Amino acid sequence: MKKEFWLERWEKKEIGFHQNEINSYLLQHWQDLQLVKSKEVFVPLCGKSKDMLWLREQGFLVHGVELSGIAVQSFYQENGLIPEYNTSSKFEYYEADGIRILCGDFFDLGKADLANVEIVYDRASLVALPPELREHYVRHLVSILQPGTQILLLTFDYPQAEMSGPPFSVSLDDVETLYDKQAEVRVLAQHDVLSQMPRFQERGVSRLTENVILLTLN
To answer: Which of 12, 134, 163, 215 has the fewest CB atoms inside 10 Å of its own CB, making it the most exposed?
Structure first.
């Protein structure tokens, strides 16, 4: 999937993946992590997620990365924040009130960019990627994080043949295969949510489970 796909979605405001409310699983399961406030939380492919506001309210520094400048600017504008702005050869940097977003390509991130990150919140990143990109994504993510980093991961699981993504189906088996020998995988919850997701029903999906998973990197 090319970068232009996501940039075009934001330009055309085709952002059905954006949630206007704080994610309910984040609220329910954040306490399952071993948390130390003031630590830095990384939110990959963050868009303009309001989850970042909630994480900041809990006392954590928030560090996002997002490809679309429209998404990044919208986040700060819609939440009444005036960010400081800087640039480098690979990223544009926006920061206000303890929330810093790098506008650019996730795969350009290096260890130095996430040096203080001990927690990752992945609601919309892994499920946004087709199978051929997921292994590359996980390999790169693990390579730029410290051992012991915790990842709160949310995924959808449905018969992939019934609907083309995104969001793509990522089963528990997929997660265990992707993070094989690189992380401890703990399933926190599984929810049958098809009845709550009319857009999936309209596209012919017959089964839909949301998985809440806690990963701890080895």
So the answer is: 12
